[in-house]
Amino acid sequence: MDKLSRVYFHIKFFDTLAELEKIPLDGTLQKLELSYKGLDSNYKEIFLDVACILKGWQEHKAIRGLESCGFHAIRGLSVLEKKSLITISGDGCLDMHDHIQEMWRYIVRRLHPDEPNKHSRLWIDEEIVDIVANNRGTEETKCVKFRLDSWSNINNPETGMKGLGNMEKLRLLLVYGYGSSWEFDEVGEYFPNSLKYLAWPKYPFCSLPKTFQASNLVAL
Question: What are the UniProt keywords, alphabetically (predicted)?
């Protein structure tokens, strides 16, 4: 997309946002949902991944992650941008207005507001800690993002990783931070075999553990 086109879409985005902010919250959500429902099912998944997990990522890295999960990411992100659902910032990162992001995170959470282990995307550290510490991961969860320092109250990391292992349809896992006391088998034994994209910038080992069957893993 050339520079002039990006300027046009940014103007359209903020015009749309200004219009939405004049509508009561229920009406705003309804209008955004109509736009969302008109999307192809794959584009819906891409949009929710951006709203819950990938906002702020550099576009080329997000494309790699999404394509690893089987999506046509370049086309999908272009469609979302044309519909003013996302923007690409001047430094090439995925972005959306906070108001829109929170609404779509609400969409993810509203079916089971008190049962985050049944949410399709998890990004709140406290909820993730509670889920993995109590071994309550489910196959409902597709994407997870968390910081390792939020696991400081878990007695041992093996418990936490086992909780992740129960997320049998987890396709995208983003881990930030470093667990300096973790042993090799403790870190990797319970990686879900469904994983297609694993991003762990400070992964402390030279290779993935032998116990992890990475047959579905496309990218690291």
Answer: Repeat
Read off the DSSP letter of residue 132. H
What tokens does 197 get? Answer: 């994209």
pLDDT by residue for the chain (220 residues), tens only, comes to 455 544 444 454 445 555 545 444 556 667 777 777 889 999 999 999 999 999 999 999 999 999 999 999 999 999 999 888 899 999 999 999 887 888 888 889 888 989 999 999 999 998 998 898 888 889 999 999 988 877 766 666 667 777 788 898 999 999 887 655 555 454 555 678 888 998 887 766 666 656 566 556 665 5
Query: Is 0.85 surpassed by the pTM of this model?
Result: no
DSSP string for residues in 147-174:
EGGGGTTSS-HHHHHHHHHT-TT--EEE
